[in-house]
Amino acid sequence: MRRSLVIGLAMGTVAVAMAGIVAEAFAQARPLDMIRYRQSAMKGNGGYLNALNAYAKGEVTLVTKDTIKAYAAALAGTSLEIPGMFPAGTDTGRTNAKPEIWQKNADFLAAAKRLGEESTKLAEVATGGNEAAMKEQIGKVAQACGGCHQPFRKPLPPASR
Amino acid sequence: MKDGDPMTSTPANVVLKCLASVFAIAGAMLLAAAPAAAQANADAIKRGEYIFRAADCSPCHTDTKNKGALLAGGRALPTPFGTFYSPNITADPVNGIGKWTDADFTRALRQGVSPDGSHYFPVFPYTSFTLMTDQDIKDLKAYIFSLPTVPLANKPHNIGFPFNLRFLQIGWKMLFFTEGVYKPAPAKSAEWNRGAYLTEALGHCAECHTPRNLLGGMDRSRWMAGSIDGPEGEMAPNITPHEATGIGEWDDIDLAYMLKTGAVPGGDVVGSLMAEVIRESTGKLTDADRTAMAKYILSLPAIDHKIEKPR
User: Do both B128 and B204 map to the same domain?
Assistant: First the structure.
């Protein structure tokens, strides 16, 4: 579990470093770069979430409320970028994005916003430091991820998870 | 009335008076019974809501994608045999199931037969619901009948010949359907039996996670071992505890957590149709029930069956 935490941290760091690159720079770039960028950012989110999940399942005593606040802030930060990560022209090729992202864009933006809300709430709950409340809210963050994957991401083969 | 008034002394009047008293007493009893009956119904509705969640009725019977009303049907269910449209199961008397008796409802779930005697296509998972107890079926109906009715007409299925011939379902049932309520395994714990009931009868997990043969019957030799062409053409993963091809690396805590949140041990959160199941069904159950399901599923025989599609 300690190893998964380290991996999660490493992945998250990569995602944050990449988030530092201005998304608009990609607007003129080839679509594949944006697709790779957003897939890496999502993998970073997965790293954070996976570390949080390990904690929520009750196995990791290493985690403090500050760790959780940091992860939650990173997830909330990425969520703000999601609207810009799917410019026109990035809907084909090596992407698992569904056309619904562009067809029902308002719904998509609402789903992305929910990730921001739930992870911001996690940071707030972590400030209080109530363990049960933090664990419950981690589940809500995960549900926010799934709430966007289901309508807007193509099903992935189980092996690639 | 005066004494001696013929009206008060005729035998007919005496009978009337007696009848009036009888009605008064009966009425008083009914009035006393009414709150008890209402309470019993409220209890049934409450239990039924949980059954409704556990049986995951709403996703198929609601056209969520097109913002359809709850349980008003019309959701397209594409299958290898054609596209089915789920029916309206609100209590609307014309378009829904408002005129159904308890016996009608029970027969639909237990036997896959509609009130007019026609046979359902197995896209409706009566093959699993047949395992439900009478009490659960009754409670489920009470809950559905407590919900708003929607006057939306059913959309005809779009399925090709010969699959559209309903009477062929009789043969299908002889081949692939066993009727009967779930019988607890006496050698197993109460928790295991609860998990089995939730998984097999209510959750009807096998309907998607078990591969089907050319006639659409579930392959019992590969129970829960995954299907490459599940509903809507999606893959349903192997959920037997096989190390390499199933979920053998998971424990019951991992699986119960996935049923609650959608998060799988690798860090991803499931999308696809399973996200609906979590949102509408397993995410709303108790922790104890999710744990029972997880323990039951992980006790299934591990089957080597790799689910992969060329991308």
Answer: no
A·B CB contacts under 8 A: 93
What would the two tokens of residue B56 be? 């995951």
- Give the confidence band of A118 by pLDDT, cuts at 50, 70, 90: very high
Give a three-class secondary structure readout of B176-217.
HCCCCCCCCCCCCCHHHHHHHHHHHHHCCCHHHHCCECCCCC
Q: What is the ipTM for the molecules in this complex?
A: 0.73
Assess if residue B3 is contained within a domain: no
B177 to B48, B54, B174, B198: CA distances (angstroms): 25, 22, 6, 19
* CATH H-level, domain A2-156: superfamily: Cytochrome c/b562 (1.20.120.10)
* Residues B173, B37 within the same domain: yes
Confidence of residue B12 (pLDDT cuts 50, 70, 90): low
Model confidence at B117: pLDDT above 70 = yes
3-state secondary structure of B113: strand
Q: Is B238 on the interface with A (CB under 8 A)?
A: yes
A101: contact with B, CB 8 A cutoff: no
Mean pLDDT within B239-258: 96
Report yes or no: B253 at the A interface, CB cutoff 8 Å.
yes
The one-letter amino acid at A79: S
Packed helices B252-261 and A131-152: angle between N→C axes, nearest 10 degrees: 60
B17 assigned to some structural domain = no
Is the Cβ pair A146, B262 closer than 8 Å?
yes
For the segment B248-259, the average pLDDT, to the nearest whole number, is 96
Mean pLDDT of A62-84: 94
Q: Could you read off the pLDDT of B164-177 as tens digits, one per residue?
A: 888 888 889 989 99
Two tokens at B100?
């159904």
> Domain locations in chain A?
2-156
Q: Which domain holds residue B64?
A: 33-181
CB contact under 8 A, B263 and A142: yes
